[in-house]
Amino acid sequence: MADDIESWEIFVSLYKTGSIGLTAQELNVDAPTVSKKISVLEKKIGRCLFDRRSRPFAPTVDAVEIYDNAREIVNHRKKISAFISDKQNENGAIIRVMQGNSYRRYAAALAFNYQREHPNLRFNFVSPIDIQDFLDRKADLIAISGEINLPNCVFLSRGRMIFIPVASPNYLKESGPLDHPKDLTNHYVFSNGFIDRFTSHLSYPFKKKDRLWTMTVTDRIRCSNVEFSKTAALQGLGVCPSLPLFCCIDELEAGTLVPILDGWHRPSVPNYVVCRREDWKLRYFREFATWYADQQKDIQCKCEERLVKVFGQDFLDNLAEN
Protein backbone atom coordinates (compact mmCIF):
# COMPACT_ATOMS: atom_id res chain seq x y z
CA MET A 1 0.00 0.00 0.00
CA ALA A 2 2.82 2.43 0.90
CA ASP A 3 4.45 1.61 -2.45
CA ASP A 4 1.20 2.44 -4.26
CA ILE A 5 0.96 5.82 -2.50
CA GLU A 6 4.56 6.60 -3.44
CA SER A 7 3.71 5.80 -7.06
CA TRP A 8 0.75 8.19 -6.96
CA GLU A 9 2.97 10.84 -5.41
CA ILE A 10 5.35 10.46 -8.35
CA PHE A 11 2.42 10.60 -10.76
CA VAL A 12 1.13 13.87 -9.24
CA SER A 13 4.56 15.46 -9.44
CA LEU A 14 5.20 14.30 -13.00
CA TYR A 15 1.77 15.58 -14.00
CA LYS A 16 2.82 19.06 -12.84
CA THR A 17 6.43 19.09 -14.00
CA GLY A 18 6.22 17.05 -17.21
CA SER A 19 9.84 16.07 -16.57
CA ILE A 20 11.28 12.91 -15.04
CA GLY A 21 14.37 14.87 -13.99
CA LEU A 22 12.41 17.62 -12.25
CA THR A 23 10.18 15.10 -10.50
CA ALA A 24 13.22 13.15 -9.30
CA GLN A 25 14.69 16.38 -7.94
CA GLU A 26 11.45 17.43 -6.25
CA LEU A 27 10.94 14.08 -4.51
CA ASN A 28 14.62 13.41 -3.83
CA VAL A 29 14.72 10.14 -5.77
CA ASP A 30 16.69 9.10 -8.84
CA ALA A 31 15.31 9.36 -12.37
CA PRO A 32 15.20 5.58 -13.05
CA THR A 33 12.98 5.17 -9.97
CA VAL A 34 10.53 7.74 -11.33
CA SER A 35 10.40 6.04 -14.72
CA LYS A 36 9.98 2.58 -13.22
CA LYS A 37 7.25 3.61 -10.75
CA ILE A 38 5.19 5.26 -13.50
CA SER A 39 5.56 2.24 -15.77
CA VAL A 40 4.48 -0.15 -12.99
CA LEU A 41 1.54 2.11 -12.13
CA GLU A 42 0.40 2.20 -15.75
CA LYS A 43 0.63 -1.59 -15.92
CA LYS A 44 -1.44 -1.99 -12.73
CA ILE A 45 -4.31 0.24 -13.88
CA GLY A 46 -4.08 -0.78 -17.51
CA ARG A 47 -3.90 2.77 -18.79
CA CYS A 48 -1.21 4.96 -20.34
CA LEU A 49 -0.81 8.09 -18.26
CA PHE A 50 1.72 10.17 -20.20
CA ASP A 51 2.63 10.79 -23.81
CA ARG A 52 6.40 10.31 -23.63
CA ARG A 53 6.94 11.55 -27.19
CA SER A 54 6.20 15.17 -26.23
CA ARG A 55 8.48 17.46 -24.21
CA PRO A 56 7.47 18.10 -21.54
CA PHE A 57 5.52 14.88 -21.03
CA ALA A 58 1.84 15.44 -21.78
CA PRO A 59 -0.79 13.77 -19.55
CA THR A 60 -3.28 11.55 -21.36
CA VAL A 61 -7.04 11.86 -21.06
CA ASP A 62 -7.02 9.11 -18.43
CA ALA A 63 -4.37 10.97 -16.42
CA VAL A 64 -6.43 14.16 -16.46
CA GLU A 65 -9.49 12.28 -15.18
CA ILE A 66 -7.72 10.67 -12.23
CA TYR A 67 -5.38 13.53 -11.30
CA ASP A 68 -7.68 15.21 -8.71
CA ASN A 69 -8.27 11.95 -6.85
CA ALA A 70 -4.57 11.11 -6.91
CA ARG A 71 -3.66 14.54 -5.58
CA GLU A 72 -6.17 14.11 -2.74
CA ILE A 73 -4.57 10.78 -1.79
CA VAL A 74 -1.13 12.38 -1.73
CA ASN A 75 -2.33 15.36 0.34
CA HIS A 76 -3.95 13.09 2.92
CA ARG A 77 -0.72 11.16 3.23
CA LYS A 78 1.22 14.37 3.84
CA LYS A 79 -1.23 15.48 6.54
CA ILE A 80 -1.01 12.13 8.32
CA SER A 81 2.80 12.13 8.11
CA ALA A 82 2.96 15.68 9.45
CA PHE A 83 0.63 14.82 12.34
CA ILE A 84 2.70 11.77 13.31
CA SER A 85 5.94 13.73 12.98
CA ASP A 86 4.60 16.50 15.23
CA LYS A 87 3.56 14.04 17.90
CA GLN A 88 6.91 12.28 17.81
CA ASN A 89 8.91 15.51 17.89
CA GLU A 90 6.83 17.11 20.65
CA ASN A 91 7.68 14.42 23.18
CA GLY A 92 10.73 15.71 25.00
CA ALA A 93 11.37 18.46 22.45
CA ILE A 94 13.51 21.43 23.49
CA ILE A 95 12.79 24.89 22.07
CA ARG A 96 15.75 27.26 22.36
CA VAL A 97 14.55 30.85 22.62
CA MET A 98 16.94 33.78 22.12
CA GLN A 99 15.54 36.78 23.98
CA GLY A 100 17.12 40.01 25.21
CA ASN A 101 18.20 40.30 28.84
CA SER A 102 15.80 43.14 29.51
CA TYR A 103 12.79 40.93 28.74
CA ARG A 104 13.45 38.45 31.53
CA ARG A 105 10.76 40.05 33.71
CA TYR A 106 8.17 38.82 31.20
CA ALA A 107 9.81 35.78 29.55
CA ALA A 108 10.03 33.65 32.69
CA ALA A 109 6.29 33.84 33.37
CA LEU A 110 5.43 33.27 29.71
CA ALA A 111 7.60 30.15 29.50
CA PHE A 112 6.27 28.85 32.83
CA ASN A 113 2.63 29.24 31.81
CA TYR A 114 3.11 27.61 28.42
CA GLN A 115 5.20 24.72 29.72
CA ARG A 116 2.61 23.99 32.39
CA GLU A 117 0.00 23.50 29.63
CA HIS A 118 2.46 21.52 27.44
CA PRO A 119 4.45 19.33 29.85
CA ASN A 120 6.20 17.42 27.05
CA LEU A 121 8.02 20.55 25.94
CA ARG A 122 11.17 22.02 27.45
CA PHE A 123 12.66 25.48 26.96
CA ASN A 124 16.18 26.87 26.96
CA PHE A 125 16.45 30.66 27.03
CA VAL A 126 19.57 32.20 25.51
CA SER A 127 20.74 35.81 25.85
CA PRO A 128 21.80 38.32 24.76
CA ILE A 129 20.53 38.58 21.18
CA ASP A 130 23.16 37.46 18.68
CA ILE A 131 22.05 37.22 15.05
CA GLN A 132 25.09 35.19 14.02
CA ASP A 133 24.48 32.66 16.80
CA PHE A 134 20.90 32.26 15.55
CA LEU A 135 22.15 31.77 12.00
CA ASP A 136 24.61 29.20 13.38
CA ARG A 137 21.61 27.32 14.84
CA LYS A 138 22.43 28.00 18.46
CA ALA A 139 18.78 29.01 18.95
CA ASP A 140 15.50 27.98 17.31
CA LEU A 141 13.55 31.17 17.94
CA ILE A 142 14.81 34.74 18.17
CA ALA A 143 13.14 37.99 19.26
CA ILE A 144 14.45 40.89 17.19
CA SER A 145 13.76 44.60 16.78
CA GLY A 146 13.95 46.37 13.44
CA GLU A 147 14.10 45.11 9.87
CA ILE A 148 16.81 42.46 9.61
CA ASN A 149 17.40 40.27 6.57
CA LEU A 150 17.12 36.65 7.70
CA PRO A 151 16.62 34.36 4.70
CA ASN A 152 14.35 31.30 4.82
CA CYS A 153 12.72 32.50 8.03
CA VAL A 154 9.17 33.23 9.21
CA PHE A 155 8.56 36.65 10.82
CA LEU A 156 5.78 37.05 13.38
CA SER A 157 4.90 40.52 14.61
CA ARG A 158 5.25 41.09 18.35
CA GLY A 159 4.28 44.74 18.31
CA ARG A 160 6.62 47.72 18.12
CA MET A 161 9.61 48.92 20.08
CA ILE A 162 9.10 52.40 21.49
CA PHE A 163 12.11 54.19 22.93
CA ILE A 164 12.04 56.86 25.63
CA PRO A 165 14.96 59.11 26.63
CA VAL A 166 14.98 59.30 30.44
CA ALA A 167 16.76 60.60 33.52
CA SER A 168 15.98 60.69 37.23
CA PRO A 169 14.29 63.79 38.72
CA ASN A 170 17.19 64.26 41.12
CA TYR A 171 19.69 64.23 38.26
CA LEU A 172 17.74 66.89 36.38
CA LYS A 173 17.45 68.98 39.53
CA GLU A 174 21.21 68.98 39.93
CA SER A 175 22.29 69.12 36.29
CA GLY A 176 19.56 71.15 34.64
CA PRO A 177 17.00 70.28 31.93
CA LEU A 178 17.70 68.53 28.62
CA ASP A 179 15.38 69.87 25.93
CA HIS A 180 17.25 68.96 22.75
CA PRO A 181 19.54 66.10 21.63
CA LYS A 182 22.47 68.51 21.36
CA ASP A 183 22.23 68.98 25.14
CA LEU A 184 23.46 65.39 25.58
CA THR A 185 27.03 66.54 24.92
CA ASN A 186 27.03 68.15 28.35
CA HIS A 187 25.94 64.99 30.21
CA TYR A 188 27.15 61.50 31.02
CA VAL A 189 25.36 59.16 28.62
CA PHE A 190 24.72 55.48 29.33
CA SER A 191 23.93 53.59 26.14
CA ASN A 192 22.69 50.10 25.51
CA GLY A 193 24.26 49.45 22.11
CA PHE A 194 25.36 46.20 20.55
CA ILE A 195 28.59 47.31 18.92
CA ASP A 196 31.17 44.70 17.95
CA ARG A 197 34.05 47.08 18.57
CA PHE A 198 33.95 49.65 21.32
CA THR A 199 34.35 53.20 20.09
CA SER A 200 34.32 56.36 22.13
CA HIS A 201 31.41 57.84 20.16
CA LEU A 202 27.95 56.59 19.26
CA SER A 203 25.48 58.23 16.89
CA TYR A 204 21.83 58.42 17.88
CA PRO A 205 19.04 59.22 15.38
CA PHE A 206 16.36 61.39 16.97
CA LYS A 207 12.97 62.47 15.68
CA LYS A 208 10.33 64.96 16.73
CA LYS A 209 7.28 65.28 14.51
CA ASP A 210 8.73 65.79 11.02
CA ARG A 211 12.17 66.90 12.23
CA LEU A 212 15.23 64.65 12.29
CA TRP A 213 18.48 65.05 14.20
CA THR A 214 21.51 62.76 14.40
CA MET A 215 23.55 63.28 17.52
CA THR A 216 27.00 61.85 18.19
CA VAL A 217 27.72 61.55 21.88
CA THR A 218 30.53 60.19 24.00
CA ASP A 219 29.57 57.18 26.09
CA ARG A 220 32.45 55.84 28.12
CA ILE A 221 30.40 53.05 29.66
CA ARG A 222 28.29 50.86 27.42
CA CYS A 223 26.45 47.62 28.12
CA SER A 224 24.28 45.35 25.97
CA ASN A 225 22.00 44.82 28.98
CA VAL A 226 19.37 47.56 29.03
CA GLU A 227 18.84 47.09 32.77
CA PHE A 228 22.41 48.28 33.32
CA SER A 229 21.70 51.62 31.64
CA LYS A 230 18.38 52.00 33.43
CA THR A 231 20.01 51.37 36.80
CA ALA A 232 22.61 54.04 36.05
CA ALA A 233 19.85 56.53 35.25
CA LEU A 234 17.92 55.62 38.43
CA GLN A 235 21.04 56.18 40.51
CA GLY A 236 21.45 59.64 39.02
CA LEU A 237 24.75 58.81 37.34
CA GLY A 238 23.70 60.18 33.96
CA VAL A 239 21.01 59.92 31.29
CA CYS A 240 19.78 57.10 29.09
CA PRO A 241 18.72 58.35 25.62
CA SER A 242 16.84 55.26 24.38
CA LEU A 243 15.22 53.00 26.96
CA PRO A 244 12.58 50.58 25.60
CA LEU A 245 9.13 51.39 26.98
CA PHE A 246 8.53 47.90 28.39
CA CYS A 247 11.75 48.23 30.38
CA CYS A 248 10.91 51.53 32.13
CA ILE A 249 7.11 51.79 32.31
CA ASP A 250 7.11 50.94 36.06
CA GLU A 251 9.62 53.72 36.80
CA LEU A 252 7.75 56.22 34.61
CA GLU A 253 4.53 55.52 36.50
CA ALA A 254 6.32 55.82 39.84
CA GLY A 255 8.08 59.03 38.79
CA THR A 256 11.55 57.66 39.56
CA LEU A 257 12.40 58.23 35.87
CA VAL A 258 11.04 61.03 33.71
CA PRO A 259 11.18 61.75 29.96
CA ILE A 260 13.78 64.19 28.69
CA LEU A 261 14.56 65.96 25.38
CA ASP A 262 11.12 67.60 25.08
CA GLY A 263 9.61 65.07 22.65
CA TRP A 264 12.77 64.18 20.76
CA HIS A 265 13.15 60.42 20.66
CA ARG A 266 14.74 57.51 18.87
CA PRO A 267 12.32 56.36 16.11
CA SER A 268 10.22 53.32 16.91
CA VAL A 269 10.89 50.03 15.10
CA PRO A 270 8.84 46.87 14.51
CA ASN A 271 9.40 43.86 16.75
CA TYR A 272 9.40 40.28 15.50
CA VAL A 273 9.63 36.72 16.67
CA VAL A 274 11.57 34.84 13.99
CA CYS A 275 12.07 31.14 13.29
CA ARG A 276 13.32 29.02 10.41
CA ARG A 277 10.83 27.80 7.83
CA GLU A 278 11.80 24.19 8.44
CA ASP A 279 10.93 24.52 12.15
CA TRP A 280 7.70 26.36 11.28
CA LYS A 281 6.45 23.17 9.63
CA LEU A 282 6.31 21.45 13.04
CA ARG A 283 2.90 21.99 14.54
CA TYR A 284 4.03 22.17 18.19
CA PHE A 285 6.74 24.68 17.27
CA ARG A 286 4.41 26.77 15.11
CA GLU A 287 1.81 26.93 17.90
CA PHE A 288 4.35 28.08 20.46
CA ALA A 289 5.94 30.67 18.16
CA THR A 290 2.54 32.17 17.32
CA TRP A 291 1.46 32.21 20.96
CA TYR A 292 4.77 33.71 22.12
CA ALA A 293 4.59 36.52 19.56
CA ASP A 294 0.97 37.29 20.44
CA GLN A 295 1.78 37.40 24.16
CA GLN A 296 4.61 39.88 23.60
CA LYS A 297 2.39 42.04 21.42
CA ASP A 298 -0.20 42.08 24.20
CA ILE A 299 2.45 43.08 26.77
CA GLN A 300 3.58 45.96 24.55
CA CYS A 301 -0.01 47.17 24.09
CA LYS A 302 -0.58 47.17 27.85
CA CYS A 303 2.64 49.14 28.40
CA GLU A 304 1.44 51.73 25.88
CA GLU A 305 -1.94 51.97 27.62
CA ARG A 306 -0.18 52.60 30.92
CA LEU A 307 1.98 55.29 29.31
CA VAL A 308 -1.10 57.08 27.95
CA LYS A 309 -2.62 57.22 31.43
CA VAL A 310 0.47 59.05 32.72
CA PHE A 311 1.45 61.32 29.81
CA GLY A 312 -1.51 61.33 27.40
CA GLN A 313 -2.21 59.99 23.91
CA ASP A 314 -0.31 62.74 22.09
CA PHE A 315 2.86 61.78 23.95
CA LEU A 316 2.54 58.15 22.81
CA ASP A 317 1.68 59.11 19.23
CA ASN A 318 4.85 61.19 19.00
CA LEU A 319 7.02 58.36 20.34
CA ALA A 320 5.38 55.84 18.00
CA GLU A 321 6.61 57.67 14.89
CA ASN A 322 9.24 55.75 12.98
From TrEMBL:
Molecular-function GO term, any one: sequence-specific DNA binding
GO biological process: DNA-templated transcription
Keyword DNA-binding in annotation: yes
Record key words, sorted: DNA-binding, Transcription, Transcription regulation
SUPFAM superfamilies hit by this protein: Periplasmic binding protein-like II, Winged helix' DNA-binding domain
Limits of the HTH lysR-type domain: 3-60
Family: Belongs to the LysR transcriptional regulatory family.
Name of this protein: LysR family transcriptional regulator
Record organism: Turicimonas muris
